[in-house]
Amino acid sequence: MERPTDDWLLRVEGLSKRYGPGCPSCSRLTGPEAGTSQCPRCGTVLACVAAGLSLRPGEVLGIVGESGSGKSTLLQMLNLAVKPDSGAIWYAEPGGGTPIDLLRLNAYSARRFRNDRLGIVHQRPELGLNMHFSVGGNVAEKLLLAEWRHVGKIRARTSELMAQTELPVERIDDAPGTFSGGMLQRVQIAKALASRPALLLLDEVTSGLDLSVQARVLDLIRRIQWEEQITMLLVSHDLGVIRQLARRTIVMKSGHIVESGLTDQIMEDPQHPYTQLLVSSAL
Amino acid sequence: MSQSDEQLYTFGLIDEDAKREIRRSLLKAVALPGHQVPFASRDMPIARGWGTGGLQITLAIITPTDTLKVIDQGDDASVNAVNLRRLITRTTGVATTVDTKAATLIQSRHRIPEERLRSDQILVLQVPMVDPLRWVEPNLERATVMHGEADYARMWVYMYESVVKAGDLRIASQYPVIVNSRYMMDTTPIPRWDVMRLHMAETLFLFGAGREKRIYAVPPYTPVAPLEFEDYPFRTEYQPGQRCARCGAEESFLTSHFVPGPHGGGAWVASCSDTSYCDQRLTGQG
Description:
The structure holds two protein chains of two kinds. By secondary structure, chain A is of the alpha/beta class. Chain A has eleven helices and ten strands.
């Protein structure tokens, strides 16, 4: 591939994922116009269809859409946890690295990449944390994967991350089960930041939290983004969350990207009927 | 054994097809040090969990010219060792010995003999639990993927938690090691004392788990590294000042047993776990 003309960190081209055998009618009977991503003829779910996007270093991109619109599938494909049926995910290291297609990495290299360059915060903490290990152990997992082999240094870095994410450092050896929902999201953020990732993926991080806790978590994410200049991809069904954090936004419905642009522009002048409905519902 | 009895069994009890299958698995295990190779574990005339994996390997590779040694917890005379030895000799007719140096094939549970093993010897170990990831991933399918991707972070977290909770690497046996800088392997059933004997050894080590139907191997001159931290290094059970009450050995793995006194009471006495080694030292001293 030729050197990119614009400075991007991640470029996604034609990313598709379906669950089911598929039939000739699938593409005609699904999509935003049909109002469903499930083919009524064969039952196949077209979770994500030909998604394309690009992310610049330090940028925060929001993905908004209703439940089942394919935004989490897209995020999981970018996290290399779900294998797409087709498409490419190009990644170029900041500072002019040679682009690599992440989907061509073997399982071992993909896992290394996921650990070293990606961080993810799940909606449900139990997906991102091992509830049998202590909070410190969970955060340390990323460091141990990066071949840190000094307990003292691991604990020092873990404490630093806990302080950065406003967690009580003295509870480093406590079990995650003794932490509240908002604290667990901060533990996940601390874990995600441990390897100093190039891209942080946030999947509905504030869903299920009460408003005051939600505000604190959002403040924390905004502060970390400001301090570390970390590139983020934020998935949410809540336009309010997207508006607070994301500079650009893409809107998904029934597996398709129906609109993309600057967040302010989308909020002020939505073009697609679904986006108009979304904005009017939020306001 | 009468002529009619001999006709009932092939050399080494198990059928030739089974031996061939085990040997193929052994070849694969040697080619991929530390990798668990599945094999069709046969029913044996001893209960699963009593050494059927080691026994099947021994019977698959033993030849009429071999000299066999069988030990259990380092002891040549324990019930399990005696029974296994009797079964193997009755179905093969090979010579047996308690002298480690004289043996060409050694089947063992829980110990690697104290005397340095040579390149013309093979040590077969009976394995109760195969996978070190069992502690952190009970799902075998997921554990297999973790081995495939060399994803051992969770085991490292387990070690980290061990240090945090206990103040040190408190793993008595089944100490996890990385073999040939690739696969994580359980050193079960040997104690920490013997773990470093696997590293760059001249001998071929074969591990058989009959109940879990797995074989793995550490070929000669293979690097074996225990999981350890820079500030919490791997340590054996060695205690400064330790000494065998029988032979006076200070550099051997000791076991404790209670010796009743003549007028009631008694005392705990530590002696060499490897009885053959201990006896030879006594004879030499005597």
